Amino acid sequence: MATIQRDYYEVLGVPRTATQEDIKKAYRRLARLYHPDLHSGSRKAEMERKFKELNEAHEVLSDPDKRKKYDRYGHNWEQAEAYEKARQEAQARAGAGTEFSFGDAEAFSDIFETFFGRRGRSAGTARGFAVQGEDLETDIHLSLREVLTGVTRRLTLSETIPCSVCGGTGIMRGRSCPTCLGSGARQETRTIEVRIPAGVQEGTRVRVAGKGHPGVNGGKPGDLYLRVHIDDDGVFRRQGSDVHVTLPVWPWEAALGADVLVPTLTEPVKVKVPPGSKAGAKLRLKGKGLPTASGGHGDLFLTLQIVMPPTLTEEERKLYEQLGRFPHPDPRADLLAAARRV
Question: Which listed CATH number (1.10.510.10, 3.40.50.2300, 2.60.260.20, 2.60.40.10) goes with 63-231?
Answer without folding.
Answer: 2.60.260.20
